Amino acid sequence: MRRYRQRGLTTVEFAIIGVLVVTLLFAIIEFSRIVFTLNMLQEGARRAARVAAVCSVGDAAIANAAVFINLPGLSTSNVAVEYLGQDGAVLANAAGANYSQIRYVRVRIHDYSMAIAIPFVAPTFDAPEYSSTLPRESLGVPNFGAAPTC
Questions:
Q1: What does the pLDDT read at residue 108?
Q2: Which site in 2, 21, 75, 120 is 20 to 30 Å from 91, CA atoms measured?
Q3: What does the alpha-carbon distance between residue 136 and residue 5 come to, in Å, rounded to a whole number?
Q4: Closest among 147, 45, 66, 140 to 102, alpha carbons compared
Q5: The whole model's pTM is what?
Q6: Distance CA 9, CA 74 (A)
Q7: 72 exposed, middle or buried (CB, 10 Å; 0-12, 13-18, 19+)?
Q8: Residue 10's CB: how many other CB atoms inside 10 A?
């Protein structure tokens, strides 16, 4: 008689544990995807800063270098390029500034959020702002010959 009353107990236990295991599995997969995305955002900022150091001021190739991975929701509007003076202050009008005033270039990737699929957790993850600063090089102005294409 005792075995008859506990017939569905394993099914109930499996349902409880199964929900926890599936949630943990989704969490591991989504955490890996978040880490990959954050790594790609940092790499995009680094690549764009490298392009900004050698390309002319305001070139569209700079923002395109930042969004090289085609992450969902990432566009060139999330990319900010700043030209800095000797003291690290942002030059007000970098396009009209004397090239000798520009000492550094900084590229920032900001306001990026991604959808995540972890049960019982917030539906989006807001990534922090990533920036990369490099000393300027040619800024698209060659010492001799034609300007390079970026």
A1: 96
A2: 75
A3: 78
A4: 140
A5: 0.82
A6: 49
A7: exposed
A8: 9
Structure tokens at 112: 């990026």
CA distances in angstroms from 42 to 11, 67, 75, 136, 149, listed in the order given = 46, 11, 15, 19, 24
User: Two tokens at 52?
Assistant: 């900004």
- pLDDT tens profile 42-91: 999 999 999 999 888 888 899 999 998 889 999 999 999 999 999 988 88
Q: Which of 92, 91, 95, 106 is nearest to 56 (CA)?
A: 95
The full DSSP string for 87-142 is TSPBPTTTTTS-TTT--EEEEEE-S-EEE---TTS-SEEEPPPEEEEEE---TT--
**Tokens, residue 32:** 């890996």
